[in-house]
Amino acid sequence: MKDAFGSPQSLLVLGGTSEIALAAVRRFMARRARTVWLAGRPGPALDAAATGLREEAAAHGAEVAVRTVPFDALAPETHEEVLEKVFAEGDIDLVLLAFGVLGDQLRDEQDPMAAVRLTRTNYTGAVSSGLVCAKALRAQGHGSLVVLSSVAGERARRANFLYGSSKAGLDAFAQGLGDALHGTGAHVLVVRPGFVHTRMTAGRTPAPLATTPGAVAEAIEHGVRRRARTVWVPAALGPVMSVLRHLPRSVFRRLPG
């Protein structure tokens, strides 16, 4: 359960090596989170993420149990079994759905199976795991599901319409799931960051209003505390996208990638 200050004490991260997710976990650990599950593909990266959190907790004199669990977004047939075992260990106050791939637009346009893999990861895997977690949160009667969407899902651009379409689907799913959980005690927060400086975007030209994993993590923390339904990171993106959403297509398609 959340502590007296409303901060989650137990966390489950789907996409346990995500820089944004790990930044959020660190913020919650500093505010009394004591159990962390990192779900992801087994390997050195997942182990290193868990070790890093343990070392940071120890350096601050905190007792935090950090565990890893095998999870593959592309294997939805395993999601119920894997995630139900986590919830069987005890209530989860916050689930952070943070996995996803950016892909390579021009390459993937020429390789339909690569495009399918991207959409299966970003959308199908999220629908499967999101529904499993929502069912468990509903049964608990409390908890938040934080879904990392993207500004790219607001309106698909020529430069990344495969990624953008997958995030648009995810965003719509998360909004509907939030409505489905209304009144159950469980809550869905949709997070829409713009360009974030991470390993995934390394080497790409930053878009205007680019942000950092730390800034997204801060927005997540504040959004969970307020039980917000949607947050933009940075907040200025909300009004900007309201304008871009209504531009004529003939103008919108000429915007720089």
UniProtKB/TrEMBL annotation:
UniProt GO molecular function: oxidoreductase activity
Keywords on record: Oxidoreductase
Highest taxon of source: Bacteria
PANTHER family: 5-KETO-D-GLUCONATE 5-REDUCTASE (PTHR43669), DECAPRENYLPHOSPHORYL-2-KETO-BETA-D-ERYTHRO-PENTOSE REDUCTASE (PTHR43669:SF6)
Family of this protein: Belongs to the short-chain dehydrogenases/reductases (SDR) family.
The name this protein goes by in its record: Decaprenylphospho-beta-D-erythro-pentofuranosid-2-ulose 2-reductase
Lineage: Bacteria, Bacillati, Actinomycetota, Actinomycetes, Kitasatosporales
